[in-house]
Amino acid sequence: MTAIVLVRGDITRQRADAIVNAANSSLLGGGGVDGAVHRRGGPAILAECRALRASRYGRGLPTGRAVATTAGNLDARWVIHTVGPVYEGPDSDPAPLASCYRESLRVADELGARTVVFPAISTGVYRWPMDDAARIAVETVRITPTAVEEVRFALFDDRAYEAFVRCLGPEGAG
């Protein structure tokens, strides 16, 4: 069974086999988590992302999909990039957001990763409501078959942390 752990803090400061990047489809960096991962991880991540764009993802990484690169200077072996959906209102389909977590775990399994750290995908500039995003994240990780031993959610602020605590319960807080 996969342990789910919550921590407050900067995802780029986490030690794990894989860190999940809430990327944009270009894979070339951006703001929020994506920009932080690229800045702290250094040029090796961008170089591999450019190679992916030149080969398999000429039009960008589709929403809900995931792909891995080196972690560069991060304290991890890999970065798993996934593109979350933009929230369009109460009728937004949660399936692409759940797919980000499932696909990231699938890639982690292919890599042999045992510890994976996720951010709260789509909750920044993509505007997904934090409580709903936390519910989707926790439920999806709980039901997705995986060999990953620990999924850690690195949550940048108190609002995100508390939303995940409400979904997971205090036993996951770390």
TrEMBL record:
Q: Per its UniProt entry, which superkingdom is the organism in?
A: Bacteria
The UniProt record lists the Macro domain at 1-172
InterPro entries for the chain: Macro_dom, Macro_dom-like
- A UniProt-annotated Pfam family: Macro
Q: Which SMART domains match?
A: A1pp
Q: Which PANTHER family match?
A: GANGLIOSIDE INDUCED DIFFERENTIATION ASSOCIATED PROTEIN 2-RELATED, MACRO DOMAIN-CONTAINING PROTEIN
Q: What is this protein called?
A: O-acetyl-ADP-ribose deacetylase
Q: Which organism is it from?
A: Streptomyces misionensis
